[in-house]
Amino acid sequence: MTTTGPRTPGPLARLIAPVRRRVVAATVLQGLAAGTGIAPLVLLVELARGLLAPAPLDADRLWLLVGGALLAALVSLLLGAASTVVSHRADDDLQLAVRRDLAAHLSRVPLGWYSRHGSGRAKRALHDDVGEVHQLVAHTVPELAGVVAVPLVTLVYLVTVDWQLALVALVLVVAGVALFARAMAGGMAKMGEYARAMGDVSSATVEFVRGIRVVKQLGSQDQASSRFVAAADAFADFFVAWSRSTTAVTVGSFLLLSAPTVTVVVVTAGVLLAAAGRTDPVDVVAFALLAPALCAPMNAIGARAQQITGARGAAARIADVLAVPELVTTGTATPEGARVELRGVRFAYEPAPGDEAHEVLHGIDLTLEPGTVTALVGPSGAGKTTLATLPARFADPTGGAVLVGGADLRDVPADVLYRTVGFVFQDVQLLRASITENIALARPDATPEQVRAAARAARIDDRVEAMPRGYDSVVGEDVQLSGGEAQRVAIARTLLADPPVLVLDEATAAVDPSAEAHIQDAVSELARGRTVLVVAHRLPTVVGADRIVVLDDGCVVEDGTHSDLLAREGAYARLWAAWHDQAAPAEEAVR
Ligand SMILES: Nc1ncnc2c1ncn2[C@@H]1O[C@H](COP(=O)(O)OP(=O)(O)OP(=O)(O)O)[C@@H](O)[C@H]1O
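That is the input. Now the predicted structure with adenosine-5'-triphosphate docked in place:
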């Protein structure tokens, strides 16, 4: 993201602002630690000077130098440790604060956001992105002080020892840094292309892996893998060309900045100067010992630059998640009763960047009376699922209002709303916890008898009893549940929560007859005495509904009972006939 005009802090600067002072303190401490870390070497040089001097040994002075070197090493260690403590404390506080903010925010974003992005984006922000910022605050920034302080302090000392030799070393390092900067600039210029090629490989990989089962069934592996292979080849070609264009400069910079090169060149120059009587041989020892320190930290710059780029991306992603609008609730209304009303409801999904918003519900008026079952039917893409998610406030309508028990959902506190409206959708979410905990999620105080009663009503009790640890069996560890079983656990959970209004998205796929009978029994149990809205993907299941609402292209086109609608010979009758011609024989074949 680019900004113009007065400089506004970027997402990374804003994110770490609360701990900025402590990061600065840790950086200063690390700089001091790195600077004092050079002192023992300097004192060693002075020790050599004392030992090699023609004059008699001044033992006291030499011991003083040894003591000084030890003390400097100790101080450097202590300063480094203090820096680590300060930076890690700051990092701990920052991680906790950011994770708390994210968790609180994620609990208030519309449920529809999760349907659209899956839980992967939330996990990435909470775990991976916070981890990248940790790397920056706890390690990268303080360590950069060392990268700067060590060569600077060394250079200042070496200039005082012999400015000519220092100049030789400086020319080498400057040439190396210039080459390195060129290599980095070349690399950065192609970064966009690199990201594109990498993106192509990852989307081709995802596509290939996702479709692998279907592809294998159809025996067309070669065709399916061709896009993946083409993307991988294109990436390899790009990478080879990229490396070729930067290899010479990169290798040149590494050679110039390597400790052996700098040492050999400077010592050779020192020997020549000493032979010409223009420098003291002991000064050459100083360069032999300290010249590597001029360039050693440079090698860390590449990795640090990558960590800074990574943390910038992570902070931007965290900021994006925090910017997702929350569902605001005035908290001023409590539903009275279980009537659900949709008044002139319009809905448009948020468009992808660059696209125009596309309205999918165009002014729906619908009242669901307490204790009745209403089935939503219609062609694929008519807006059934979108409509069904609105009473559970997955999102707010873009026009009109949704009321439950006379209260506009925007005025109902979230906990009251979810006690009033329950939902069981196809992608059932079970926790990696015991069956009991999964069923009692909304009522942790439920007794084991209440949990079992709900499981019995949901026709899952027998299956749970047969599990290795019964109701204590952990889902995903002790037992793997089929889709139908998971759905019945979710139904048991909803039965126990006992919400007066219920939204159900019926399974799309045909399952075997006994499993379907179990699910239908469980659903009937669930529907008893509640206001139920069910999205029916398979027509035979709607026959007994009190009312059938036919949606087409985001509008209600018919409304009535099964026999009324058949007699009307309109949209529903056509759907029914089409289902009999196509889907029914296919389902029979599956059975
Ligand atoms: N998350 C989303 N973002 C953008 N558009 C969406 C999203 N979900 C659904 N749509 C669009 O909204 C329209 C209605 O979709 P919806 O899933 O509500 O229909 P449906 O009647 O339930 O279909 P089906 O029976 O196939 O499940 C479709 O055009 C669909 O492409």
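The pocket of adenosine-5'-triphosphate is lined by residues 116, 349, 360, 378, 380-386, 537 (CB under 6 Å).
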